[in-house]
Amino acid sequence: MRTVFNLNAKWAFAKNVAELPTAVPTDWYFVNLPHSWNGIDGQDGGGDYFRGTCYYVKELEKMDLPKADRYFLEIRGANSSAEVYLNGKKLASHDGGYSTWRVDITDHLELKNLFAIAVDNAPNDRVYPQMADFTFYGGLYRDVNIICVSASHFDLEYYGGPGIKVTPTVEGKDAKVEVEVFVTDSKMGQTIRYTVYDAEENVIAETETADTTASFTVENVHLWHGRKDPYLYCCEAELMENGEVLDHVCTRFGCRTFKIDPENGFILNGEEYPLRGVSRHQDRWGLGNALLPEHHEEDMDLICEVGATTIRLAHYQHDQYFYDLCDERGMVVWAEIPYISKHMPNGRENTVSQMKELIIQNYNHPSIVVWGLSNEITMNGEADPDLMENHHILNDLCHEMDKTRLTTMACLTMADMDSDYVQVPDVVSYNHYFGWYGGNTAMNGPWFDKFHEKFPNLPIGCSEYGCEALNWHTSKPMQGDYTEEYQAYYHEELIKQLFSRKYLWATHVWNMFDFGADARAEGGENGQNHKGLITFDRKYKKDAFYAYKAWLSDDPFVHLCGKRYIDRVEETTKVTVYSNLPEVELFANGVSLGKKTAEDHFFYFDVPNVGETKLTAVAGEFKDEGVIRKVEQFNEAYRLVEKGTVLNWFDIDAPEGYFSLNDTLSDITATLQGKMLFAGLAAKVMKSMNKGGGMAGFDIGESMMQMMGSFTVIRLTSLMGAADVHFSKEELLDLNKKLNKIKKPKK
What we know:
Elements: E1 3-6, E2 11-15, E3 29-31, E4 53-61, E5 70-75, E6 78-79, E7 81-86, E8 89-95, E9 101-104, E10 112-120, E11 139-140, E12 144-149, E13 153-154, E14 164-171, E15 174-181, E16 183-184, E17 191-197, E18 203-209, E19 213-218, E20 224-225, E21 229-230, E22 233-241, E23 244-253, E24 258-261, E25 265-268, E26 271-272, E27 276-280, H1 293-306, E28 310-313, H2 320-329, E29 332-336, H3 348-362, E30 368-375, H4 385-401, E31 406-412, E32 428-431, H5 444-454, E33 460-464, H6 484-498, E34 507-509, E35 515-516, E36 528-529, H7 543-552, E37 558-560, E38 567-568, E39 572-579, E40 583-588, E41 591-597, E42 602-608, E43 612-619, E44 622-630, H8 665-669, H9 672-689, H10 702-709, H11 713-719, H12 729-739
Parallel strand pairs: 27-28, 27-34, 28-29, 29-30, 30-31, 31-32, 32-33, 38-44
Antiparallel strand pairs: 1-12, 2-3, 2-4, 4-10, 5-9, 5-12, 6-11, 7-8, 7-10, 13-16, 14-15, 15-19, 17-18, 17-22, 20-21, 22-23, 24-25, 25-26, 35-36, 37-39, 39-42, 40-41, 40-43, 43-44
Helix pairs in contact: 1-2, 3-4, 6-7
C-alpha cells in the first residue's frame, strides 16, 4: 500500500554555497518546511530582495522509510527552478515554482542518504514569471514528501498528476461519470477496483475490471451548486493483485453544468449565478509563500465572509489544499499560469509545461471553470507574432487536454479591444483601474458597454480593479491620496457600475489581501501592494470590505465606516454606514440622527461635529460603534506625505474657480489657454515617451491618450518617471501658477 512519508522537518539551509556539501553542514541554518528565504526582504521595499540559488540539505536513513518497492521524492512547490541531488548525484531539475513534481529516487537510495535541493529564483529569460507586480519568493515553500509504493502503482511522474482523472457529465436527472487511471508497470492478472461514494461515504457504485477506464451512472445526481450547495462525491481506485490492494488513489469530484453567456453572464446548472468576487495572492506578512493549512483556511473564511462567489487565483498555480477548500466551500475558480507582463521568446516551452501541470494536477476540481492563458502580457504591445503564436498554442493545448472547460485571459487596459489577441480565448476579461491610475470611476461601466456593443458574442468580464488604501484619512477623498475613504468611495462606485451589468461574466476585485511587491514604494509603506480589502497580516478589514459584504453576503450586519478617522475639523461631517439590512438608524451620543433606507446598501449621514461624539449605527438587532472628535487643525498623522516625491497634492495652491495641478489634463486642455499652455509641455513629454515607440514600452493609441487625459496633472507627472520624464519642484510650482490664472468654464 502507498505510504506518504513527510520530510518537512529540519533541513540545513544556506545561501551562496560554493560547492555541494557531502554531509549536513553544522554551520548552516536549520529550518522546517515550508520555508522561504524572502519572507522579510521580499516585503520591505527597495526591490533588492535576494534572488539567487540556495541549498536545502537533509540526511535520511533508508531504514526510517516504510518498506516499499519504489520511492518518489515529491516537491509541492520550489520557486522558481530546482535541482535534486541524492548522495552527490544530480537526479532531476524542474522549472516552474508553483506546481507539484516528483523524482524517482529508488535506485539511488543507500543505507544513509544525503538529500540536497538547490532552489533558484534568480532572473532569467526562460522561466515565468520574470516581471510582475509581486515578489517572487524563493524557497521550498510547500510540503516535501517521499511517496512509497509497490512496483505496480498509479502513475506519479506524469506532470505531477494524481494518477486518476474523473469526468462527470450531467444528463437530465442523472450523471454519467467517466473514470480513467494511469498505472505504471502493470502486470497480467492485476485488476482495478473502482468505487464511487456520496458525501456521506455511502457506496453508490462499484466495479472491478482489468481496464484502466470505467463508467458509472449516478442516478438522481446531487449537483455541485457553488456556495449554495457545494456537494462532492468521491471516486476511489484500488490496484488489486490476488485480492490484495497494491496501491490506491482517490479524488473528490462534483457534478455540475455551466456556460458563460455573453448577455446573461455565468450560468450554473441552468440558473443565472453571478460571479462577483476577488483575486487572491497566496503570501503572508513575514512568511512569504510558506503557508500552513490554517493560513489557507483563514483566507477562505474571510473570502466567504465578504460574500464572494468566485476567486481568481492569481497569477500562478496555488496550493492543492486551497483548491480543495474552493471545492468544499463552493467557490467558482479562475486558475492560471504565471505567463505575465513580459513575453519572453525563450519562455514558450515553460508556458506549455506549466499549463500542462496546472491542468493535469487540477482537472478533478469542480470549482475550476476556466484556465487562464496570460495576464497583462501585452505591456510592449500585442503585435508580436511570437506572442500571438504562443497564445494560440496554449489555447489549443487547453482545449485538447480538457474538453469540459473554457479558456480566458486578463488583458491590460491599453490592449486594443479590436486586436486579434483579444479574440484568442473563449471568454476574456480586462484589468481596468479607471479612477486610480488614471481616468475616473465613471469611465468603467461605459468602457464595458462599448466592448459589449462591439463584440456582443464575446463574453467580457473585469479581472482586476481596485485602489490602494492604508491608515490615511480625509473628509475630502481624492484619487491618489491612499486614504481608506477614497478606497471606500472608489469601490462604492465600481460596485454600482459593475454589479448592475449582468452581461459581465465575472468581476474580480484586485485584491482580497494586501500582498508583497518589493519594488513598490507607494502609500508610505514600501514593499507592498495595498489594494487589498484586508491588510497583509489579515488583522484589519478596510471599510471597502464591508461595502462588498453589504452587496454579496446574506449574513445580516451593520458597519460604521471611518473608525480609524477620529479627529475631524469640519463643523458637520459625513459618516457612512454599510449594511445589507433595509434600514439604518444612526445615534450621536445616544440621540437619534434619523433613519435612512438605501437600495444600494450605502447609508450616508451628516453628523454635527462638536466635542467628542460616540456614534452608534443600528440596523435591526445589529449595531456598530465608533467615535469622532472635533479638532481645530487637521491631524497630520492622517495624511500621507510621500518621501521622495516632488510635490504632494495637498501642497498645491488651488484657488476656487481656477485650474491647478490637481485638475485633469483633459479638463484643462478643453480651454484655449490650457491647450496653449500644454502645447510646449506635451512636445517635451511625447518626445521622451516615444523614444522606444511608446510610453515605457506602451503604444500610444486612442485608449492611452484618453487615459492620460483623465489623470490629474500632478498624478500624471508623478507617474512619468517610468518614461524617463522628470519635473523639478520649481517647474511644477511655476506651472501651477500659470494654471491658477486660467478660469474654469462655467458648468
